[in-house]
Amino acid sequence: MKIILTGATGVLGSHIMYEILELFIKSNNDGKLFIIARNKGKKSALDRIDELLSSYYTPKIIREKGIHYLHQYLEIIDVDLADIQATFSTKIEGAYFIHSAGFVNLSTDETQRSKIYEENTTITKSLFTLFQPYIKKFIYIGTAFSSGNRKGLIENDFHTLGFSPDHRNAYENAKYDSELFIAKECKKVNLPFQILRPSVIGGKMLDTENPNFISKYMVFYLLAKFFYFTSQRKGEQENVRFIVYEDTVLNIIPVDYVAKVIVKIFERNDIEQLNIVHNRSFNMMEGLQLIMKEVGYTNFTSIKKPLNFIYQNTIEKLYYESIGKHLNPYFTSRANEYDTTLLQTILEIPVLDDQALTDMIRFAKNNNFKDINV
Ligand SMILES: NC(=O)c1ccc[n+]([C@@H]2O[C@H](COP(=O)([O-])OP(=O)(O)OC[C@H]3O[C@@H](n4cnc5c(N)ncnc54)[C@H](OP(=O)(O)O)[C@@H]3O)[C@@H](O)[C@H]2O)c1
Question: Is 81 in the pocket of ligand 1 (CB under 6 A)?
Fold first, then answer.
Protein backbone atom coordinates (compact mmCIF):
# COMPACT_ATOMS: atom_id res chain seq x y z
CA MET A 1 0.00 0.00 0.00
CA LYS A 2 1.24 3.47 -0.87
CA ILE A 3 0.23 6.58 1.04
CA ILE A 4 1.30 10.17 0.49
CA LEU A 5 1.01 12.42 3.54
CA THR A 6 1.38 16.18 3.86
CA GLY A 7 1.57 18.05 7.18
CA ALA A 8 3.50 15.28 8.99
CA THR A 9 5.42 17.85 11.05
CA GLY A 10 2.16 19.28 12.40
CA VAL A 11 0.02 18.55 15.45
CA LEU A 12 -2.34 16.20 13.64
CA GLY A 13 -0.16 15.05 10.73
CA SER A 14 2.52 13.70 13.09
CA HIS A 15 -0.10 11.46 14.73
CA ILE A 16 -1.42 10.36 11.34
CA MET A 17 2.19 9.42 10.47
CA TYR A 18 2.50 7.39 13.71
CA GLU A 19 -0.77 5.58 13.02
CA ILE A 20 0.22 4.72 9.45
CA LEU A 21 3.60 3.41 10.58
CA GLU A 22 1.90 1.35 13.29
CA LEU A 23 -0.43 -0.06 10.65
CA PHE A 24 2.52 -1.02 8.43
CA ILE A 25 4.43 -2.54 11.35
CA LYS A 26 1.48 -4.55 12.63
CA SER A 27 0.25 -5.76 9.26
CA ASN A 28 3.79 -6.64 8.25
CA ASN A 29 3.12 -5.40 4.75
CA ASP A 30 5.38 -3.70 2.25
CA GLY A 31 3.74 -0.33 2.76
CA LYS A 32 5.35 2.87 1.62
CA LEU A 33 4.66 6.23 3.18
CA PHE A 34 5.71 9.22 1.11
CA ILE A 35 5.99 12.27 3.34
CA ILE A 36 6.01 15.65 1.69
CA ALA A 37 7.55 18.07 4.19
CA ARG A 38 9.72 21.15 3.99
CA ASN A 39 13.03 21.97 5.61
CA LYS A 40 13.25 24.62 8.30
CA GLY A 41 16.39 26.64 8.96
CA LYS A 42 19.28 24.18 9.07
CA LYS A 43 17.00 21.16 9.54
CA SER A 44 16.14 19.14 6.47
CA ALA A 45 12.71 17.54 6.17
CA LEU A 46 14.44 14.23 6.96
CA ASP A 47 15.98 15.63 10.19
CA ARG A 48 12.58 16.90 11.25
CA ILE A 49 10.83 13.59 10.62
CA ASP A 50 13.62 11.65 12.34
CA GLU A 51 13.18 13.85 15.40
CA LEU A 52 9.45 13.07 15.44
CA LEU A 53 10.28 9.36 15.26
CA SER A 54 12.81 9.29 18.07
CA SER A 55 11.70 11.65 20.83
CA TYR A 56 10.27 11.07 24.31
CA TYR A 57 6.76 11.79 23.00
CA THR A 58 7.02 9.33 20.06
CA PRO A 59 4.67 6.38 20.65
CA LYS A 60 6.66 3.50 22.13
CA ILE A 61 5.80 1.04 19.36
CA ILE A 62 7.36 3.41 16.81
CA ARG A 63 10.33 4.63 18.88
CA GLU A 64 11.36 1.10 19.84
CA LYS A 65 11.72 0.05 16.21
CA GLY A 66 14.41 2.66 15.65
CA ILE A 67 14.84 5.10 12.80
CA HIS A 68 16.78 2.70 10.58
CA TYR A 69 14.00 0.11 10.67
CA LEU A 70 11.26 2.70 10.15
CA HIS A 71 12.94 4.09 7.06
CA GLN A 72 12.11 0.93 5.11
CA TYR A 73 8.56 2.31 5.04
CA LEU A 74 9.43 5.94 4.42
CA GLU A 75 10.38 8.21 1.60
CA ILE A 76 10.79 11.86 2.49
CA ILE A 77 10.20 14.45 -0.20
CA ASP A 78 11.80 17.67 0.98
CA VAL A 79 9.86 20.50 -0.64
CA ASP A 80 7.57 23.39 0.18
CA LEU A 81 4.07 22.54 -1.01
CA ALA A 82 3.88 25.92 -2.70
CA ASP A 83 6.79 24.95 -4.99
CA ILE A 84 6.13 21.29 -5.67
CA GLN A 85 6.58 19.91 -9.21
CA ALA A 86 5.46 16.58 -10.65
CA THR A 87 8.73 14.68 -10.82
CA PHE A 88 7.84 11.39 -9.13
CA SER A 89 4.79 10.24 -11.04
CA THR A 90 5.52 6.54 -11.46
CA LYS A 91 6.58 5.71 -7.94
CA ILE A 92 3.46 7.27 -6.43
CA GLU A 93 1.12 5.51 -8.85
CA GLY A 94 -1.93 4.14 -7.00
CA ALA A 95 -1.26 5.95 -3.71
CA TYR A 96 -3.77 7.30 -1.22
CA PHE A 97 -3.14 11.03 -0.80
CA ILE A 98 -3.80 12.35 2.71
CA HIS A 99 -3.58 16.15 2.73
CA SER A 100 -3.23 17.28 6.33
CA ALA A 101 -1.01 20.33 5.75
CA GLY A 102 -2.83 23.57 6.36
CA PHE A 103 -2.57 26.99 7.90
CA VAL A 104 -4.62 27.05 11.12
CA ASN A 105 -5.24 30.75 11.62
CA LEU A 106 -8.51 32.06 13.03
CA SER A 107 -7.57 35.67 12.33
CA THR A 108 -10.38 38.08 11.62
CA ASP A 109 -7.93 40.61 10.13
CA GLU A 110 -8.81 41.22 6.52
CA THR A 111 -5.10 41.70 5.74
CA GLN A 112 -4.57 37.99 6.50
CA ARG A 113 -7.34 36.74 4.20
CA SER A 114 -5.29 36.25 1.03
CA LYS A 115 -2.43 34.46 2.83
CA ILE A 116 -4.90 32.13 4.57
CA TYR A 117 -6.55 31.41 1.22
CA GLU A 118 -3.24 30.75 -0.52
CA GLU A 119 -1.92 28.41 2.18
CA ASN A 120 -5.15 26.46 2.52
CA THR A 121 -6.97 26.64 -0.81
CA THR A 122 -4.51 27.56 -3.55
CA ILE A 123 -2.04 24.91 -2.35
CA THR A 124 -4.80 22.27 -2.09
CA LYS A 125 -5.98 23.03 -5.62
CA SER A 126 -2.51 22.84 -7.13
CA LEU A 127 -1.63 19.65 -5.21
CA PHE A 128 -4.81 18.04 -6.44
CA THR A 129 -4.18 19.06 -10.05
CA LEU A 130 -0.63 17.75 -9.88
CA PHE A 131 -1.32 14.41 -8.19
CA GLN A 132 -4.82 13.54 -9.35
CA PRO A 133 -3.75 11.56 -12.46
CA TYR A 134 -1.65 9.15 -10.38
CA ILE A 135 -3.49 8.64 -7.12
CA LYS A 136 -6.14 6.20 -5.95
CA LYS A 137 -8.02 8.54 -3.62
CA PHE A 138 -7.76 12.09 -2.22
CA ILE A 139 -8.35 12.47 1.52
CA TYR A 140 -8.71 16.08 2.63
CA ILE A 141 -8.43 17.10 6.28
CA GLY A 142 -10.94 19.90 6.64
CA THR A 143 -12.40 21.48 9.74
CA ALA A 144 -15.78 20.96 11.40
CA PHE A 145 -15.95 24.76 11.66
CA SER A 146 -16.47 24.96 7.90
CA SER A 147 -20.08 24.42 8.89
CA GLY A 148 -19.99 28.11 9.88
CA ASN A 149 -22.08 29.68 12.60
CA ARG A 150 -24.99 27.24 12.75
CA LYS A 151 -27.69 26.30 15.20
CA GLY A 152 -28.94 22.80 15.95
CA LEU A 153 -27.71 19.37 14.93
CA ILE A 154 -24.91 19.33 12.36
CA GLU A 155 -24.76 16.30 10.07
CA ASN A 156 -21.73 15.02 8.15
CA ASP A 157 -22.91 16.30 4.78
CA PHE A 158 -21.90 19.93 4.21
CA HIS A 159 -22.35 19.80 0.44
CA THR A 160 -26.10 19.68 -0.02
CA LEU A 161 -27.07 22.16 2.66
CA GLY A 162 -29.20 24.35 0.44
CA PHE A 163 -27.65 27.46 1.97
CA SER A 164 -24.17 29.01 2.19
CA PRO A 165 -22.47 28.52 5.54
CA ASP A 166 -22.04 31.69 7.59
CA HIS A 167 -18.27 31.58 8.06
CA ARG A 168 -16.70 33.40 10.98
CA ASN A 169 -13.32 33.99 9.39
CA ALA A 170 -11.13 33.50 6.32
CA TYR A 171 -9.84 30.15 7.59
CA GLU A 172 -13.30 28.52 7.76
CA ASN A 173 -14.05 29.93 4.34
CA ALA A 174 -10.78 28.78 2.76
CA LYS A 175 -11.10 25.28 4.21
CA TYR A 176 -14.68 25.05 2.94
CA ASP A 177 -13.73 26.20 -0.56
CA SER A 178 -10.96 23.61 -0.60
CA GLU A 179 -13.22 20.73 0.32
CA LEU A 180 -15.87 21.78 -2.18
CA PHE A 181 -13.19 21.93 -4.86
CA ILE A 182 -11.93 18.44 -3.99
CA ALA A 183 -15.43 16.94 -3.99
CA LYS A 184 -16.34 18.58 -7.29
CA GLU A 185 -13.12 17.73 -9.13
CA CYS A 186 -13.06 14.15 -7.84
CA LYS A 187 -16.62 13.59 -9.03
CA LYS A 188 -15.66 14.94 -12.47
CA VAL A 189 -12.90 12.38 -12.94
CA ASN A 190 -14.52 9.62 -10.89
CA LEU A 191 -11.80 9.62 -8.25
CA PRO A 192 -12.80 8.51 -4.73
CA PHE A 193 -12.40 11.19 -2.06
CA GLN A 194 -12.95 11.78 1.63
CA ILE A 195 -13.42 15.00 3.56
CA LEU A 196 -12.58 14.41 7.23
CA ARG A 197 -13.22 17.29 9.61
CA PRO A 198 -11.90 17.49 13.17
CA SER A 199 -13.25 20.08 15.60
CA VAL A 200 -10.79 21.87 17.91
CA ILE A 201 -7.88 19.52 18.50
CA GLY A 202 -6.84 18.82 22.10
CA GLY A 203 -4.19 16.65 23.77
CA LYS A 204 -3.92 12.85 23.72
CA MET A 205 -6.47 10.84 25.64
CA LEU A 206 -6.58 7.30 24.33
CA ASP A 207 -3.88 5.53 26.29
CA THR A 208 -1.51 5.95 29.19
CA GLU A 209 1.50 6.96 27.11
CA ASN A 210 2.11 10.71 27.44
CA PRO A 211 -1.48 11.61 28.33
CA ASN A 212 -2.58 15.11 27.26
CA PHE A 213 0.46 15.55 25.02
CA ILE A 214 0.04 17.94 22.11
CA SER A 215 2.92 19.42 20.14
CA LYS A 216 1.54 22.92 19.62
CA TYR A 217 -0.81 24.97 21.76
CA MET A 218 -3.44 26.51 19.50
CA VAL A 219 -7.03 27.81 19.75
CA PHE A 220 -8.34 27.36 23.34
CA TYR A 221 -4.80 26.72 24.60
CA LEU A 222 -3.86 30.22 23.39
CA LEU A 223 -6.50 31.74 25.64
CA ALA A 224 -5.20 29.63 28.54
CA LYS A 225 -1.65 30.71 27.71
CA PHE A 226 -2.55 34.40 27.65
CA PHE A 227 -4.24 34.30 31.05
CA TYR A 228 -1.67 31.97 32.59
CA PHE A 229 1.16 34.37 31.86
CA THR A 230 -0.98 37.37 32.83
CA SER A 231 -1.80 35.72 36.16
CA GLN A 232 1.93 35.41 36.85
CA ARG A 233 2.36 39.21 36.79
CA LYS A 234 2.74 41.07 40.06
CA GLY A 235 -0.16 43.14 41.35
CA GLU A 236 -3.90 42.76 41.37
CA GLN A 237 -5.67 40.95 38.55
CA GLU A 238 -7.70 43.35 36.42
CA ASN A 239 -11.27 42.44 35.56
CA VAL A 240 -11.73 41.02 32.07
CA ARG A 241 -15.19 40.88 30.52
CA PHE A 242 -15.86 38.04 28.11
CA ILE A 243 -18.64 38.57 25.64
CA VAL A 244 -20.27 35.11 25.70
CA TYR A 245 -23.71 33.88 24.72
CA GLU A 246 -25.15 31.58 27.33
CA ASP A 247 -25.78 28.63 25.02
CA THR A 248 -22.61 28.85 22.90
CA VAL A 249 -20.48 25.69 22.95
CA LEU A 250 -16.92 24.50 22.45
CA ASN A 251 -16.20 21.12 20.84
CA ILE A 252 -12.81 19.57 21.58
CA ILE A 253 -11.50 16.26 20.22
CA PRO A 254 -8.22 14.56 21.24
CA VAL A 255 -5.50 14.46 18.60
CA ASP A 256 -4.82 10.72 18.91
CA TYR A 257 -8.52 9.95 18.47
CA VAL A 258 -8.67 12.01 15.26
CA ALA A 259 -5.57 10.32 13.81
CA LYS A 260 -6.83 6.83 14.67
CA VAL A 261 -10.20 7.48 13.02
CA ILE A 262 -8.52 8.80 9.87
CA VAL A 263 -6.31 5.74 9.53
CA LYS A 264 -9.18 3.38 10.33
CA ILE A 265 -11.38 4.75 7.55
CA PHE A 266 -9.28 6.16 4.72
CA GLU A 267 -9.81 3.01 2.65
CA ARG A 268 -13.59 2.94 3.17
CA ASN A 269 -15.55 3.90 0.10
CA ASP A 270 -18.86 4.35 1.91
CA ILE A 271 -17.67 7.48 3.77
CA GLU A 272 -17.16 10.66 1.76
CA GLN A 273 -17.66 13.21 4.54
CA LEU A 274 -17.19 12.77 8.28
CA ASN A 275 -16.97 15.18 11.19
CA ILE A 276 -14.42 13.89 13.71
CA VAL A 277 -15.80 15.67 16.72
CA HIS A 278 -16.92 15.06 20.27
CA ASN A 279 -20.50 13.90 20.90
CA ARG A 280 -20.78 16.43 23.70
CA SER A 281 -19.55 20.01 23.52
CA PHE A 282 -18.67 22.12 26.52
CA ASN A 283 -20.90 25.02 27.31
CA MET A 284 -18.53 27.88 26.42
CA MET A 285 -18.89 29.71 29.73
CA GLU A 286 -18.36 26.52 31.73
CA GLY A 287 -15.31 25.62 29.64
CA LEU A 288 -13.97 29.12 30.13
CA GLN A 289 -14.45 28.86 33.89
CA LEU A 290 -12.51 25.58 33.97
CA ILE A 291 -9.67 27.03 31.92
CA MET A 292 -9.44 30.25 33.96
CA LYS A 293 -9.52 28.32 37.23
CA GLU A 294 -6.67 26.08 36.12
CA VAL A 295 -4.49 28.98 34.94
CA GLY A 296 -5.24 30.98 38.08
CA TYR A 297 -6.97 34.03 36.61
CA THR A 298 -10.06 34.61 38.70
CA ASN A 299 -11.10 38.19 38.00
CA PHE A 300 -13.38 37.84 34.97
CA THR A 301 -17.06 38.17 34.16
CA SER A 302 -19.30 37.32 31.26
CA ILE A 303 -21.43 39.93 29.60
CA LYS A 304 -23.92 40.06 26.73
CA LYS A 305 -22.77 41.69 23.49
CA PRO A 306 -22.63 45.41 24.26
CA LEU A 307 -23.38 48.05 21.68
CA ASN A 308 -20.23 49.89 22.50
CA PHE A 309 -17.35 48.06 24.15
CA ILE A 310 -14.75 50.35 25.67
CA TYR A 311 -11.75 48.68 27.28
CA GLN A 312 -11.82 49.16 31.01
CA ASN A 313 -8.19 48.28 31.67
CA THR A 314 -4.88 47.25 30.07
CA ILE A 315 -5.39 43.49 30.29
CA GLU A 316 -8.76 43.69 28.59
CA LYS A 317 -7.20 45.82 25.84
CA LEU A 318 -4.25 43.44 25.44
CA TYR A 319 -6.57 40.44 25.27
CA TYR A 320 -9.03 41.89 22.77
CA GLU A 321 -6.28 43.34 20.59
CA SER A 322 -4.59 39.94 20.33
CA ILE A 323 -6.06 36.47 20.70
CA GLY A 324 -9.44 37.70 22.00
CA LYS A 325 -10.23 39.46 18.74
CA HIS A 326 -9.98 36.20 16.81
CA LEU A 327 -11.69 33.97 19.39
CA ASN A 328 -14.58 36.36 19.95
CA PRO A 329 -16.80 35.06 17.11
CA TYR A 330 -16.60 31.58 18.68
CA PHE A 331 -17.90 32.94 22.01
CA THR A 332 -21.01 34.35 20.41
CA SER A 333 -21.89 31.51 18.05
CA ARG A 334 -25.22 29.73 17.88
CA ALA A 335 -25.69 26.58 19.94
CA ASN A 336 -25.05 23.35 18.07
CA GLU A 337 -24.04 19.72 18.44
CA TYR A 338 -22.81 17.20 15.89
CA ASP A 339 -24.47 13.97 14.84
CA THR A 340 -21.81 11.42 15.84
CA THR A 341 -23.85 8.26 15.16
CA LEU A 342 -21.54 7.09 12.35
CA LEU A 343 -18.36 8.24 14.12
CA GLN A 344 -19.23 6.22 17.23
CA THR A 345 -19.42 3.04 15.14
CA ILE A 346 -15.87 3.63 13.91
CA LEU A 347 -14.18 4.28 17.26
CA GLU A 348 -15.74 5.02 20.61
CA ILE A 349 -15.28 8.67 21.53
CA PRO A 350 -13.42 9.07 24.84
CA VAL A 351 -15.20 10.86 27.68
CA LEU A 352 -14.00 14.46 27.75
CA ASP A 353 -15.42 15.87 30.97
CA ASP A 354 -14.46 18.79 33.23
CA GLN A 355 -11.54 16.85 34.69
CA ALA A 356 -10.23 15.91 31.24
CA LEU A 357 -10.28 19.53 30.04
CA THR A 358 -8.59 20.64 33.26
CA ASP A 359 -5.92 17.96 32.73
CA MET A 360 -5.25 19.20 29.18
CA ILE A 361 -4.72 22.74 30.46
CA ARG A 362 -2.63 21.54 33.41
CA PHE A 363 -0.36 19.64 31.03
CA ALA A 364 0.12 22.77 28.91
CA LYS A 365 0.79 24.85 32.02
CA ASN A 366 3.32 22.34 33.34
CA ASN A 367 5.10 22.61 30.00
CA ASN A 368 4.96 26.40 30.10
CA PHE A 369 2.88 26.32 26.90
CA LYS A 370 6.09 25.62 25.00
CA ASP A 371 5.47 24.21 21.53
CA ILE A 372 7.60 21.37 20.20
CA ASN A 373 9.25 22.77 17.11
CA VAL A 374 10.91 20.09 15.06
N1 LIG B 1 -5.37 22.20 15.11
C2 LIG B 1 -6.70 22.19 15.11
O3 LIG B 1 -7.37 22.49 16.14
C4 LIG B 1 -7.46 21.79 13.87
C5 LIG B 1 -8.84 21.64 13.97
C6 LIG B 1 -9.56 21.24 12.84
C7 LIG B 1 -8.91 21.00 11.65
N8 LIG B 1 -7.56 21.16 11.56
C9 LIG B 1 -6.93 20.87 10.27
O10 LIG B 1 -6.06 19.77 10.44
C11 LIG B 1 -4.94 19.89 9.55
C12 LIG B 1 -3.67 19.75 10.36
O13 LIG B 1 -3.60 20.84 11.28
P14 LIG B 1 -2.54 20.83 12.45
O15 LIG B 1 -3.29 21.08 13.71
O16 LIG B 1 -1.67 19.63 12.35
O17 LIG B 1 -1.74 22.16 12.08
P18 LIG B 1 -0.21 22.51 12.34
O19 LIG B 1 0.29 21.84 13.57
O20 LIG B 1 -0.08 23.98 12.24
O21 LIG B 1 0.53 21.82 11.11
C22 LIG B 1 0.43 22.28 9.81
C23 LIG B 1 1.25 21.38 8.94
O24 LIG B 1 1.15 21.82 7.58
C25 LIG B 1 2.45 21.98 7.06
N26 LIG B 1 2.49 23.00 6.01
C27 LIG B 1 1.80 24.15 5.97
N28 LIG B 1 2.13 24.84 4.86
C29 LIG B 1 3.05 24.09 4.20
C30 LIG B 1 3.79 24.26 3.00
N31 LIG B 1 3.64 25.35 2.23
N32 LIG B 1 4.67 23.29 2.63
C33 LIG B 1 4.86 22.18 3.40
N34 LIG B 1 4.17 21.97 4.54
C35 LIG B 1 3.29 22.91 4.93
C36 LIG B 1 3.28 22.40 8.25
O37 LIG B 1 4.65 22.26 7.96
P38 LIG B 1 5.78 23.07 8.79
O39 LIG B 1 5.98 22.28 10.07
O40 LIG B 1 6.94 23.02 7.89
O41 LIG B 1 5.26 24.45 9.03
C42 LIG B 1 2.75 21.41 9.27
O43 LIG B 1 3.29 20.13 9.06
C44 LIG B 1 -5.08 21.24 8.86
O45 LIG B 1 -5.58 21.03 7.59
C46 LIG B 1 -6.08 22.00 9.72
O47 LIG B 1 -6.82 22.90 8.96
C48 LIG B 1 -6.81 21.53 12.65
Answer: yes
- 268 close to ligand 1 (CB < 6 Angstrom): no
Indicate whether residue 159 lines ligand 1 (CB < 6 A).
no
Given this model, what pLDDT does residue 30 score?
86
Which is it for strands 193-198 and 273-276: parallel, antiparallel or unpaired?
Answer: parallel
Which atom of ligand 1 is nearest the CA belonging to 12?
16
Query: Residues spanned by CATH 3.40.50.720 within the chain?
Result: 2-202+251-276
- CA distance linking residue 77 with residue 69, whole number of Å: 18
Pocket lining: 219 vs ligand 1, CB cutoff 6 Å: yes
- Confirm or reject CATH 3.10.450.50 for domain 2-202+251-276, answering yes or no: no
* Residue ranges of the chain with per-residue pLDDT less than 70: none
Exposure of 46 in the CB half-sphere (CA atoms within 13 A): 8
Amino acid at 264: K
Task: State the pTM of this model.
Answer: 0.98
